[in-house]
Design goal:
By secondary structure, the protein is an all-beta fold. The chain has one helix at residues 96-100; strands spanning 3-6, 12-14, 32-34, 62-65, 71-73, 91-93, 121-126, 130-137, 142-147, 153-159, 162-167, 171-176, 181-184, 189-193, 200-207, 213-214. It comes from Candidatus Wallbacteria bacterium GWC2_49_35.
């Protein structure tokens, strides 16, 4: 039997053809490649597509949209998120008392399926020290030159392609593809351009009080 690997999340599919959609991260079949097992080396165990379920003793009456963070108070999640329009399966039980104790669990790949319906930036986590966000760039969209005077910024490309520019007196750039990570050091001018034909999705982690200065075009 053949095996096919999802290039986005690493899920391994067994069958004669790749699946129509990855059961883990929901990308289309074009993101699968055939796995060559001729070397005899064993493949890592496939990532489970199952969700973590809360115990009956801790059933929540709040549900959080994993796409935009909206909190819904009811015995059941809504049919659609009133903020980003994501379907009800994008809602997870929300336990604020657990989150306040510092334990937070979510699946970032849940965001990618409804990227076109989501806002241009989503904040997943925010603490006193750092912020974790996802940016969405439509084809041709640009975040122009800016810098953060008080903190580094780390990006990871989750979907799509683009180009990352630095300017430390002279301009340099690097092409971006899925899986790339890039550091924008504090106080260094940088910009991001979606040069691809599809949406570009990038997550970023940065110091919460890093600040932001836009570069003057004059």
């Amino acid at each position: 039997m053949k095996q096919f690997k999802c290039l986005v999340c690493g899920y391994i599919h067994n069958g004669e053809e790749p699946p129509e959609r990855c059961p883990v991260c929901k990308v289309g079949r074009e993101k699968f490649v055939a796995v060559d097992n001729s070397s005899g080396q064993s493949e890592p165990a496939p990532r489970s597509a199952e969700k973590l379920a809360p115990s009956p003793s801790s059933m929540a009456r709040k549900f959080r949209c994993v796409v935009c963070g909206y909190i819904h108070e009811s015995d059941e999640p809504p049919e659609r998120c009133p903020v980003c329009k994501a379907p009800r399966e994008k809602f997870a039980p929300y336990f604020p008392e657990e989150n306040e104790n510092g334990i937070v669990y979510d699946n970032l790949f849940d965001v990618l399926e409804t990227a076109h319906e989501a806002t241009k930036k989503i904040t997943h986590l925010k603490t006193e020290e750092m912020v974790f966000e996802t940016y969405y760039f439509l084809p041709g969209q640009v975040i122009d030159y800016h810098k953060h005077p008080a903190g580094d910024q780390i990006f990871v490309v989750m979907q799509g392609s683009g180009e990352f520019f630095f300017n430390c007196g002279s301009e340099t750039s690097t092409k971006l593809k899925v899986g790339d990570y890039i550091l924008a050091p504090k106080n260094v001018w940088h910009k991001i351009v979606n040069t691809g034909a599809n949406i570009l999705v990038m997550t970023q982690v940065m110091a919460r009080n890093a600040g932001m200065i836009l570069k003057s075009t004059r």
